[in-house]
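Supplementary Text 2. Reproducibility record for the structural model of the 252-residue chain.

All settings were left at their defaults, and a single model was retained for analysis rather than an ensemble. We include the record here because the model underlies the residue-level annotations in Supplementary Table 4.
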Amino acid sequence: MPVNKKKIITFLFILILLSLLLGGLVYFLFQKKTNPDPKESSYDSRSEVYWQRLQNRPEVLQGPGYPSDLRDFLETLRGKESYLWEGDRDKTYAFLLETYSDERGHVLYAVYVAFMNWKEKTQEVETRDDLSSYEKLTAVNRLSEEIFPLVLRQLLFPKHPTKPPVWLLSFLEDYIQKNPYSYSRERKRIFLKKKAELYQKEKWEIQSWESPMFFRQVVDLIYARELLEMSEEERTSYRSAKQEELKVDFWN
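Retained model, structure tokens:
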């Protein structure tokens, strides 16, 4: 009996198509499982409704009866859960409902679950060896933006003048690590540009919070090649001159 080549080709084509569709489905499910939306794990069955409500009215946490220092409150609660209740989330939930018998207990529990989710994901980022300190800072900042609405983010991570210098130093280290053969002139230009971007209108206040070691570290990074060729005495004089030069160039 002769074989119908057309039918065989059609059958093989259908098999290949089904294989591709199945492979795509498996890939999609795998990606969804391994790369979940950070917000999806920011609630459990007891907090989901309240967490969703908070997306539209996070300012409720600034109302009467709520902790004045929300970050400190959550950190203290985390300590109790870890050491006093041996990681039992049910006891944390019961404690909040007993302490705050109205809606506040439910709201605070929803925030706590999201905060612990952020903590867990932050720890995963910070233990990665393939990221520079600046990349870690950027990733952690992105996580906070993905998980918390703006008002809640401002309550948990308020601006402080010590933060920009840390970001700036990490940025410079990252740039030099990725551009080891760059010249000091280019490093200085990149540094001053990033400093202007980070300090903006608060530059006077931020400057007053700069660590005494901050500019020495900056000079050592920018002029590493030049310093390598100097004696210790020459380095001391050179560092002082370059520190003053950087300060003058920034303010001018």
